[in-house]
Amino acid sequence: MLDLWFEKAIKPLMEGEAYLVRYIDDFVVCFQYRSDALRFQKVLLKRLEKYALSLAPEKTRLVEFGRFAQKYAEKRGRKRPETLSFLGFTFYCCTRNLKGKFKVGMRTENARAHRSLHRFSDLMRRMRHLAIEEQVENLNRVLRGYYAYFGIAGNYMALQRLYRGVERYWKKMLGSRSQKGEISWEMYQNLKRRFELLRPKLVIPYWKLQILAIL
After folding, report:
1. C-alpha–C-alpha distance, residues 67 and 49, integer Å
2. Beta-strand (E) ranges in 13-131?
3. Would you say 161 and 108 are in contact if contact means Cβ atoms under 8 Å apart?
4. Distant-in-sequence, close-in-space partners of 146: CB < 8 Å, separation ≥ 6
5. How confident is the model at residue 146 (pLDDT cuts 50, 70, 90)?
6. Of 36, 37, 52, nearest to 1 (Cα)?
7. CA end-to-end distance (rounded Å), the chain
8. Which among 172, 157, 80 is positioned nearest to 113, based on CA atoms?
9. Crossing angle of helices 132-150 and 156-176, rounded to 10°
10. C-alpha angle 130/134/138, rounded to 5°?
11. Helices (H) and strands (E) in the chain, counts
């Protein structure tokens, strides 16, 4: 319905470069020229209607993005170009690589970060009565998966924020098991030395990161 149609029927008619990136029913389409993007937007609606499908209005936007987005944003009176969110990441284009060339920046989408921290909090509430060793094993298992997905160059601060949030809530949960309703910071630090939470890790560092260039 979408992939082959885009490759066979749409791309040959475009004046500039065009690319489709899709995961299940979420997709981003990149065009070199704004005119191509507008043309595609019109025919896409008709294509979807043919299969009784439609676009989600809250997730559908036309965004100026790429090497020249900063220049276009300044012409329109904006300090920065727009960003776009896809698969839990926010993509932005005000960054440079080590050679000073344009590259796309990626960070954890704010809404996804809040949902992830909420899930960690829910996990800790459900296992608050388990042995501390078991709690740490479960938390580290989930943290490892989180870092494996979001541990990409340029996103370390977002990983740190989540880690600190998990730390704070874990201390609170451990304190709820105490008769006093809390544990001292010194006691918590001693527990951490014995049962350490997995610290943030970049799975894809700068030297491995493939630079995404959008014309």
Report:
1. 34
2. 18-23, 26-31, 84-86, 89-96, 102-108
3. no
4. 116, 159, 162
5. very high
6. 52
7. 26
8. 157
9. 160
10. 110
11. 7, 5
Instruction: Tell me the C-alpha distance between 154 and 105, whole Å.
Output: 7
- Residue with token string 């997709």: 27
Amino acid at 153: A
Is 90 exceeded by the pLDDT of residue 44?
Answer: yes
- 143 CA to centre of own chain: 15
Cα distances from 24 to residues 52, 87, 131, 152, in angstroms, run 17, 10, 39, 22
Name the one residue in this structure whose structure tokens are 């899930």: 119
105-132, pLDDT tens digit by residue?
889 999 999 999 999 999 999 998 899 9
Identify residue 120 by its one-letter amino acid code.
F
Cβ proximity of 91 and 110 under 8 Å: no
Please, what is the angle between helix 156-176 and helix 185-194, to 10°?
A: 110
